[in-house]
Amino acid sequence: NAGVTQTPKFRVLKTGQSMTLLCAQDMNHEYMYWYRQDPGMGLRLIHYSVGEGTTAKGEVPDGYNVSRLKKQNFLLGLESAAPSQTSVYFCASTQGGGWNTGELFFGEGSRLTVL
Amino acid sequence: AQKVTQAQTEISVVEKEDVTLDCVYETRDTTYYLFWYKQPPSGELVFLIRRNSFDEQNEISGRYSWNFQKSTSSFNFTITASQVVDSAVYFCALSEAIKGSQGNLIFGKGTKLSVKP
Q1: Longest CA–CA separation in chain B, Å
Q2: How does DSSP classify residue A16?
Q3: CA–CA distance from B110 to each of A17, A24, A36, B24 (Å)?
Q4: Which of B6, B13, B9, B18 is nearest to B94 (CA)?
Q5: How many A-B residue pairs are in contact by the CB < 8 A criterion?
Q6: Is the pLDDT of residue B99 over 90?
């Protein structure tokens, strides 16, 4: 049971470089999320998707783009990385949302450092 | 607006002590869910509990118990007879549970619990 898989797990970038984080889930979940975790800040929602082909902004979307071309995959892109984007990124998925929000299943996290 | 406050940034206890982690939330909705997640040093996030706003019964699961009080907007988490393996960061979270809402979770900033032998 793979659950939610994030790749890569670690990455070091230089300012201005671009990269994409991939999240894949094998539970046929409709809802997928990208969070970032910073010391003392908890988890903050970057973008989310309520189904294939849909995306929406969360609390801290600036500097990120996302795509959900396939139901099982949710990609997070950084077009021009900045040191402020140094963080641990978590992907999560769940079957229900809104009135039926259930347990979120999280990936193991991706640690990104921008120099 | 929704908000989750975990006022305790860090707590340190000695093994076998009981410890309570506080969670206070704000929401204008009458229907919502509350969650607790555990993040051990390895980094993954582990689901502990989900509670619907209409269910104020306290819950016990082994050494873990949760006290939900709508009157004080609190959803506190108690670990009885703590163990070193309980050392982790614990997050409380809130989501709207109304139709039309996306049910996005709003997380508190977490409480880091250290249990010393």
Answers
A1: 48
A2: T
A3: 31, 26, 14, 12
A4: B6
A5: 71
A6: no
The answer to whether B44 contacts A109, with C-beta atoms less than 8 Å apart, is: yes
Q: Tell me how long chain B is.
A: 117
Per-residue model confidence as pLDDT tens digits over B3-35:
999 999 999 999 999 999 999 999 988 888 899
Name the closest residue on chain A to residue B50, using Cα atoms.
A103
| DSSP annotation of B45 | -
Partners of residue A34 in chain B, C-beta under 8 Å? none
Joined together, the tokens standing for residue A57 give 């902004």
Q: Is the pLDDT of residue A96 over 90?
A: no
The alpha-carbon gap from B96 to the nearest alpha carbon of chain A, in Å, equals 6
Tell me the C-alpha distance between A69 and A15, whole Å: 28
Q: Is B86 on the interface with A (CB under 8 A)?
A: no
Please check the confidence at residue A101 and state whether its pLDDT lies above 70. Answer: no
CB pair distance less than 8 Å for A103 and B47: yes
Say how far apart CA B50 and CA B93 lie, in whole Å: 9
B9–A40 C-beta distance less than 8 A = yes
Is A44's CB within 8 Å of B107's CB?
yes
- pLDDT digits over B42-81, tens only? 999 999 999 988 888 888 889 999 999 999 999 999 999 9
